[in-house]
Design goal:
single chain; mainly alpha; Hypothetical protein af1432; 11 helices; globular; binds adenosine-5'-diphosphate; HD/PDEase_dom; YqeK; bis(5'-nucleosyl)-tetraphosphatase (symmetrical)
Length: about 190
């Protein structure tokens, strides 16, 4: 696994995301590194995936679609209508092209952090969950419950994260990309 220029990534992020988003990203990185040993995950890979997961978060829709087309990323009608949902896939492209990341596990974890996937390895599960519960997300009862669960059952934490996303999307009358439902059903089975 190639060494990552962490300070170079942070400099790049300062120019490409808001200060609040950078705090979130550093929170995901820190949480992922801290919790990796609890789940048998390599902390170096966890830290890299955490730091790189939102590289394309602030890219405008046209840029996201252009990069997706250039790299033949799989698009469907929901992703085409909501290009923001492909920021995860595009972040993996930037991680590879801009920062030379070639570890397939790290790139997969970055790709899966918004919608999940079936299946996901423990590294991808950890980043999916850390994105939802890192410290800047707050201290709601729901999040505290998720934090407790995530320390001993990563699959149950993935299920809860998917369910929280689904609840939010339904409450706000938003379109649901079905991959999060497939991820939720998979995590439900795995948590048994
Ligand atoms: N399955 C889904 N279908 C539609 N929208 C989704 C789905 N999952 C997440 N989203 C929305 O996509 C946006 C980005 O999600 P995410 O990457 O988790 O971002 P953030 O870090 O800002 O919470 C959020 O507004 C979220 O509500």
């Amino acid at each position: 696994m190639a060494e990552l220029d962490r300070q170079g990534v942070i400099q790049w992020l300062r120019c490409n995301v808001s200060p609040q988003r950078l705090d979130h990203i550093l929170g995901v990185e820190k949480t992922a590194v801290q919790w990796a040993p609890l789940h048998g995950v390599d902390p170096i890979k966890a830290g890299q995936a955490g730091l790189l997961h939102d590289l394309a978060k602030f890219f405008p829709p046209a840029k996201l679609l252009a990069i997706a087309e250039e790299h033949r990323l799989p698009l469907d009608p929901i992703l085409q209508a909501s290009p923001h949902l492909i920021h995860a896939d595009v972040s993996a492209v930037i991680a590879s092209e801009e920062f030379g990341v070639d570890d397939p596990d790290v790139l997969t974890a970055i790709r899966c952090h918004t919608l999940g996937a079936v299946p996901m390895d423990p590294l991808a599960c950890l980043i999916f969950v850390a994105d939802a519960l890192e410290p800047t997300r707050g201290n709601s009862l729901e999040l505290e419950k998720l934090r407790q669960v995530a320390q001993h059952n990563l699959y149950q934490a993935v299920r809860l994260t998917c369910e929280q996303t689904l609840t939010y999307l339904i409450k706000h009358h938003k379109v649901i990309h079905p991959r999060v439902i497939l991820t939720r059903n998979w995590a439900l089975q795995m948590a048994k």
